[in-house]
Amino acid sequence: MKITAFDGSPRKNGNSTAILRSFTDRAEELGADLTVYRTSELDLKECRGCLMCNVLKKCAIRNDCWNGLADEISASDVLVFATPIYFHHTVSSMKRLLDRFRSFINVRITEEGIIHTPHNPWNKKIFLFTAHGSSSVEDALPLVDLFDFMKETLGEKNSLKCINGTRLAIAGQVTSDKTRLSEIYTKLGLPQHLVEDDYKKNIGLLKTAEEFAENIFSG
Ligand SMILES: Cc1cc2nc3c(=O)[nH]c(=O)nc-3n(C[C@H](O)[C@H](O)[C@H](O)COP(=O)(O)O)c2cc1C
């Protein structure tokens, strides 16, 4: 089982990173062939919008890590994306990566609309893990919509599963014990009565990530 994961958090001990780690630790225990990249450390140029990928069926940009990475992505059974939500979307380094996915797709404009056809349709399990400060998942929905679109566009056999971690602002919050969570809530001005349920919610997020990893091995 080849798994390629992308960690978008620019900070140490990120909440999205912790959710990702819960997934990858379990996947490794179960024997996955795993590679994790931090998107902020990738030597990746921005998509320049030349649209040559429509003709070449690969990206025309040279001298960065994309071509090797594209091969690795294509060869993967599972792709995992973990990211903080910044202004209702992903962080810039993750967006830079995702824009390069345009080179996996042929795009044709017709009178009726745009037709997207993958050069080589995927059959992958895709996971999106987000962490964000707001108490509702709404802030993550534009990104979930994008992943839904990519899942559909890149191959009808793809699947997508998401974990959206709400009310997570401070680094390390999702793995905090109850005492630390209580201190964080005082600092953030959040009421203490939320601590008990949010502690359980955070454990649930990490557990769900672990179960997702188990499920990919059980079929
Ligand atoms: C530039 C910036 C923009 C943010 N925008 C949002 C937002 O739109 N909605 C939200 O709920 N949280 C937002 N946050 C809070 C982060 O999503 C939150 O701190 C999250 O836990 C960061 O994830 P990480 O710990 O994995 O780095 C923003 C934080 C920063 C620094």
Secondary structure: elements and pairs:
Layout: E1 2-7, H1 15-29, E2 33-38, H2 53-56, H3 66-75, E3 78-84, H4 92-99, E4 105-109, E5 114-118, E6 125-131, H5 141-154, E7 159-165, H6 178-188, H7 195-217
Parallel strand pairs: 1-2, 1-3, 3-6, 6-7
Antiparallel strand pairs: 4-5
This protein binds flavin mononucleotide.
Explain what you see.
Helix 1 (15-29) runs parallel beside helix 7 (195-217). The model has no long low-confidence stretch (mean pLDDT 97). The protein contains seven helices and seven strands, in the order βαβααβαβββαβαα. It is globular. The chain has helices spanning 15-29, 53-56, 66-75, 92-99, 141-154, 178-188, 195-217; strands at residues 2-7, 33-38, 78-84, 105-109, 114-118, 125-131, 159-165. The strands form two sheets. Strands 2-1-3-6-7 form a five-stranded parallel β-sheet, sandwiched between helices. The protein has a two-stranded antiparallel ribbon with strand order 4-5. It has a single domain, classed as Flavodoxin domain (Rossmann fold), CATH 3.40.50.360. The chain is α/β, with parallel strands linked by helices. Helices cover 39% and strands 20% of the residues.
